[in-house]
Amino acid sequence: MGFFDRLTQVWKGFLGLWISDLEAKNPEAVYEAAIEERIKKHRELKKAVSGIVYLRNKLQSELEQKTKALKELEFQIPVAIEEGEDEAALLLIEKKDEVEARLQELTGELEKVSAQAEDAKSGLLQFQSEITKLKREKTEMLAKKANAEARLKIQESLDGLSTDADIKALENVRESIHKSQAEADIGSEIKGESLDAKLAKIKSKAASASARSQLEEMKRQMAAKKEAAAQAAAVKKTM
Fold first, then answer.
1. Cα 202–203–206 angle (5° rounding)?
2. pLDDT, tens digit, 9 for 90 and up, residues 15-42
3. Residue 33 has what pLDDT?
4. What is the pLDDT of residues 183-200, one digit of tens each?
5. In angstroms, what CA-CA distances link 192 with 91, 205, 206?
6. Residue 108 confidence class, pLDDT cut points 50, 70, 90
7. Residue 27 and residue 20: Cα distance in Å, rounded?
8. Residue 28 backbone dihedrals phi, psi, to 5 degrees
9. Taking the model in full, what pTM does it have?
């Protein structure tokens, strides 16, 4: 191998590595290219299959025509013989033999072409299934790639954080929460010792004392009435 041949091989190697690196960085483009290539081949295969199906249909149509022609010849030959038309009968018999021979050929050809058409259709359906499968694989693999990249970013972020810094941040948050709770507690305590609170407490006690005084007065009046009624009843009884 000459110098330029070796240089060409080295260049091809570098080019291959460069292309591989590009493909690894852009998997979506690789999948799209593969899918597009399969779709293109599917169109070509579909065109080929349509040609086979057309030939099968053509043979089927000719077979039906020849079968119909044979029946007509088989009906015409006895008529020609009865009419004494030997030449016509001979000609009809020759045509019948030709039609029968052609029918035999058509039957064999149709069987082969029909089998080819079925195989071609099966391959076409399988190819279509492969395209669908590749599209689904593309979606799944790209989702896995996105998930893996997200996890890597999270891991890189975690690796870049200091454990001491995390603990310090948590302590700051906890201290802030505890201070907020203390402020709320102080507010409740101060509210209980304020002048307004004391006045409200005195007012409540005064209202309670007034009500109790009224209750005692009502009891005293009711007792006086009962005593006066008892005395009046006693006087009335002595009379």
1. 85
2. 444 345 545 567 788 888 888 888 888 8
3. 84
4. 666 655 555 555 566 666
5. 132, 16, 19
6. very high
7. 10
8. -60, -40
9. 0.44
Instruction: Please write down the HEC assignment for all residues of the chain.
Output: CCHHHHHHHHHHHHHHHHHHHHHHHCHHHHHHHHHHHHHHHHHHHHHHHHHHHHHHHHHHHHHHHHHHHHHHHHHHHHHHHHCCCHHHHHHHHHHHHHHHHHHHHHHHHHHHHHHHHHHHHHHHHHHHHHHHHHHHHHHHHHHHHHHHHHHHHHHHHHHHCCHHHHHHHHHHHHHHHHHHHHHHHHHHHHHHHCHHHHHHHHHHHHHHHHHHHHHHHHHHHHHHHHHHHHHHHHHHHHC
Query: Which amino acid appears at position 63 of this protein?
Result: L
Q: Which domains does the chain possess? A: 3-160 (1.10.287)
CA angle 132–138–144, rounded 5-degree value: 140
pLDDT tens string 149-166: 788 877 776 666 555 666
- Name the token pair of 113: 């072409």
